[in-house]
Design a protein that fits this description.
The model is unreliable at 157-164 (pLDDT under 50). The protein is built from 21 helices and four strands. By secondary structure, the chain is mainly α. The strands form two sheets. The protein has a two-stranded antiparallel sheet with strand order 1-2. Strands 3-4 form a two-stranded antiparallel sheet. Helix 2 (22-30) packs antiparallel against helix 6 (131-146).
Length: 497
């Protein structure tokens, strides 16, 4: 294990992350109501920069660090997410507003929820927080949305070929070897171009729909990140605006699509400065097609169940709240415009189950991803065929191409590990005294990076014990890294070879 390479990259990544604290520092300086938070952000900035610089300096002591291999890549990703989760909690702990009334476990929970784009919160009366803290929470989600490590690979080309190991460990989905470009730094930059473009478009959409500059900015962060944080306790419902909700629906759907697919549909001609966009390409990929079908069916089923119970007095209310919440939960965003947790006939539980599917691979959505369910279904159908024709030879076909048996076995392995870990964590939560439905929905919401749950955690997670919050923080992390990245470093074989 080349710990010099690990220290070198981890140190540079930490120094890059410390730069993200400059905006909340500036807000604390210029906003009168946020000046009490200046110390918290400056102290966090200095600690992150100094610690990162120390790690980087130690890596060059007497000997230059080498290029990280895949083993070091996995360890760097896990260590970085853990370190950033801890560093991200410092402004909450040092805050003059929150520090006296927030525990260490709650600060860690809020930080990990932000950086993993989960959107669960332990905070109450968010409306009264200073602008600096409100901005900081939203920025945490935006940075974590596409992946801090992918950002670092994009801006630190000095990582060289080792950047591929970070990219493979970070990007969600079963097809981790696909590249957007020959150079991994170029591929990472292209992903961030799309991410930034969607954020800008979402900002203008919210601003035109009636949000203030600040609200449009911070909500665009959490929308494109599919995070669900909001600077208001009532979330999107605070604005009571159908135009704002329509903008949110559009960009929640777009953010749930593979970002590599977004990029592939743009065609830029440098000589003539022409940009062409081919939206028909979204319907050529099986995953994006089924993603649209999935969202349509969830919306349809939600509307039918609400209509059958006469839950809303008017059709406009039915469509407005039903479609918004169906899209928000199914894409694992977690925005709310109504109290969906009290909807009738098991509909809230159905929506929580939809979060297990989530969005497309390579998107900012949580869940197990559409493509994995497609492959599991097709593999199941192939096994049925083998029962009828034992000697038949048939491949699993995705987008008219056969999928390798290694990918298929990896998907089944992921599914098995997911269920096993979910059951273990659910048992641990139950042993802490959490009621069964609350425990199930809280764990599902955290491991799928959804955010809001049912019963005691429908509004926030304040009522849970410190142990429960730490368990759920671990669930957020392992769900964001899609299990394998974290579990591989816990394997004895990882350290033996």
């Amino acid at each position: 294990m080349d710990f010099r390479a690990i220290n070198s990259i981890l140190g540079r990544l930490l120094m890059v992350y410390s730069l993200s604290l400059i905006p909340p520092i500036l807000i604390s300086i210029f906003d009168v109501g946020s000046r009490n938070e200046l110390y918290a952000f400056i102290a966090t900035f200095l600690q992150s920069m100094l610690f990162g610089g120390l790690l980087y300096g130690l890596s060059y002591y007497k000997k230059k660090p080498g290029v990280p291999r895949i083993k070091e890549g996995f360890l760097i990703v896990v260590l970085y997410w853990v370190v950033i989760g801890v560093v991200g909690s410092l402004p909450f702990i040092l805050s003059t507003e929150l520090g006296p009334k927030i525990s260490l476990s709650e600060a860690l929970f809020e930080s990990f929820s932000g950086i993993t784009t989960t959107g669960a919160t332990v905070l109450q009366d968010i409306d009264s927080l200073s602008y600096a803290l409100k901005y900081y929470r939203q920025q945490l989600q935006w940075i974590g949305g596409m992946g801090i490590v992918v950002l670092a690979v994009a801006v630190l080309p000095t990582l060289g070929v080792g950047g591929m190991q970070l990219y493979k460990a970070e990007i969600a989905g079963p097809f981790k070897t696909n590249k957007l470009a020959p150079r991994i730094s170029t591929a990472a930059r292209r992903l961030w171009y799309i991410y930034l473009l969607l954020t800008i478009l979402c900002f203008f959409g919210y601003f035109i729909a009636g949000m203030s500059f600040f609200d449009a900015l911070v909500h665009s962060f959490s929308t494109i990140a599919i995070g669900g944080f909001s600077p208001y306790d009532a979330s999107i419902g605070h604005f009571n605006s159908i135009n704002i909700e329509i903008v949110a629906i559009i960009f929640m759907i777009l953010a749930g699509i593979n970002f590599a697919l977004h990029f592939s549909l743009f065609h830029y001609t440098p000589k003539t400065f022409k940009i062409r966009f081919s939206p028909s390409g979204y319907f050529k990929e099986i995953e994006s097609r089924l993603y649209f079908v999935f969202l349509f069916l969830v919306c349809l089923l939600t509307l039918l169940m609400l209509y059958s119970q006469d839950y809303y007095e008017t059709h406009s209310e039915l469509f407005r709240h039903g479609i918004f919440q169906a899209i928000s939960i199914a894409t694992t965003t977690g925005f709310t415009n109504s109290d969906w947790a009290v909807w009738p006939i098991g509909l809230p539980l159905l929506l929580v189950f939809c979060s297990f599917i989530g969005g497309c691979s390579g998107s900012t959505a949580g869940g197990m991803k559409i493509i994995r369910f497609v492959m599991i279904f097709k593999q199941g159908m192939r096994e049925v065929l083998y029962l009828i024709h034992p000697n038949a030879i048939r491949s699993v076909i995705i987008n008219k191409r056969p999928v390798s048996e290694r990918v298929i076995s990896g998907v089944w392995g992921f599914f098995a590990i997911y269920l096993f870990i979910f059951c273990i964590l659910l048992l641990l939560l139950s042993l802490t005294g959490v009621q069964p439905l609350t425990a199930f929905s809280a764990l599902a919401a955290c491991i799928n990076n959804l955010g809001p749950g049912l019963q005691d955690v429908s509004q926030n997670y304040q009522s849970l014990s410190d142990i429960s919050k730490l368990i759920l923080s671990f669930a957020m992390l392992i769900g964001r890294l899609e299990f394998y990245t974290l579990l591989v470093i816990l394997s004895p074989a990882f350290w033996r070879t």
